[in-house]
Design a protein that fits this description.
Elements (H helix, E strand, L loop, with lengths): L2 H22 L21 E3 L6 H4 L4 E6 L4 H17 L5 E6 L6 H10 L6 E3 L2 H6 L7 E5 L5 E5 L5 H10 L3
Parallel strand pairs: 2-3, 3-4
Antiparallel strand pairs: 1-4, 2-5, 5-6
Length: 173
């Protein structure tokens, strides 16, 4: 093999490795605190774990909203970290909510997921239009909503969320 052919082969292998790494091992930057638009109104079929909050009860609060599905492994793995965050931030007035787009026909599975993972906060079910309005492309999707009702942080993993919550809490009402 000539030196030139070897160089091209090596360059090709390096490109394939870089592409493979980007696809299968994406970086987790932790999301940036930035405005992503207003949180749409909840449109759900019902609530698991008690009654859902009213719009008035959420007004002026920092919210952490976990969008999930009962069959989603990454959703299940994110729950313990979100529960730990709730223990830290709920005493400061942060409201935690869960939302699934699974409807009444999958309610038993959704209720089992909430029970199995010991999620303590209210979870809306049948919120397909809520998912659509947010243009959810993958789950879990975790949101932090500022006191002004604007989504200020949006990621598929909880890394970096603590800083976003602290920043949202520090913003003036």
């Amino acid at each position: 093999m000539s030196q030139r052919a070897f160089f091209y082969a090596l360059a090709g292998v390096m490109i394939v490795v870089v592409i493979f790494t980007r696809i299968y091992f994406p970086t987790k930057s932790g999301g940036e605190f930035q405005r992503h638009g207003a949180l749409p109104a909840f449109a759900e079929q019902g609530w698991i774990n008690g009654p859902g909050p009213t719009a008035e009860e959420l007004k002026g609060k920092v919210l952490v909203i976990d969008l999930w599905a009962f069959w989603c492994g990454p959703c299940k793995r994110a729950v313990p970290e979100i529960i730990a965050l709730q223990k830290t931030f709920a005493p400061q007035g942060v409201v935690f909510l869960g939302v699934t787009n699974e409807g009444q026909e999958r309610l038993k599975e959704s209720e089992a997921f909430v029970k199995e993972t010991a999620i303590p906060w209210p979870n809306a079910y049948g919120a397909e239009s809520f998912f659509d309005e947010l243009s959810v492309e993958g789950i879990p999707t975790i949101l932090v909503v500022g006191r002004d009702g604007q989504i200020v942080w949006r990621e598929h993993h909880p890394e970096g969320i603590e800083k976003a919550i602290e920043t949202a809490l520090a913003e003036v009402k």
